[in-house]
Amino acid sequence: MTFIILNMTPPHHGSDSGHIERMRTVIRTLKTEKLALERSVLAAGLNAASHFTALVESQKALAHAQAQVAAVTLDFEVERQANERMAAELDALQSQNSALRQDVELRDRQLEAGDKERDELQHALAIAKLPASSRNNVLDLLRGAT
Questions:
Q1: What span, in angstroms and rounded, lies between the C-alpha atoms of 2 and 56?
Q2: C or N terminus of the chain, fewer CB within 10 Å?
Q3: Where are the alpha helices (DSSP H) in the chain?
Q4: How does pLDDT run across 17-33, given as a tens digit for each residue?
């Protein structure tokens, strides 16, 4: 930017026409600078409008991204709660499984004991069906074995 200092005091020597011509030159220069400043202001306004539009678009994109983050966070929380419920259900099922396993082991032992008793009863019945002399011989053999 150019500043022009005007000497408004008319010179004491020379004609008024020279002074008027210098004044016209100064006025033309000031008008040219005014136009240049108006163009600069207009360009700055357009630039500011462009930046404002970009800012608005950035804010929209940010709001969209924040909404996506909120949705993902909500989904994550729902999944976390579902995982906690499934973990609790798994613990309960494992406890039930352990109890059932113990029950099966107890019933297996009971079955084995029942099978042994049945076998003993079948053997005793078979011995009881023998004639008395044979039965006594078997009983003597068994007593000798123990």
A1: 37
A2: C
A3: 16-129, 132-145
A4: 889 999 999 999 999 99
Q: Are 97 and 89 in contact (CB under 8 A)?
A: no
Residue the block writes with tokens 């406890």: 95
Cβ contact 16:10 at 8 Å: yes
* pLDDT, mean of residues 87-95: 97
Give the single-character DSSP code of 130. S
Distance CA 74, CA 81 (A): 11
Average confidence (pLDDT) over 100-123 = 96
Alpha-carbon torsion, ordered 24, 29, 30, 32, to 10 deg: 130
Residue 15 has φ and ψ, to the nearest 5°, of -95, 165
Hunting for tokens 């003993």 — which residue is that? 120
Q: 4 and 26 in contact (C-beta within 8 Å)?
A: yes
In the chain, where are the structural domains located? 16-145
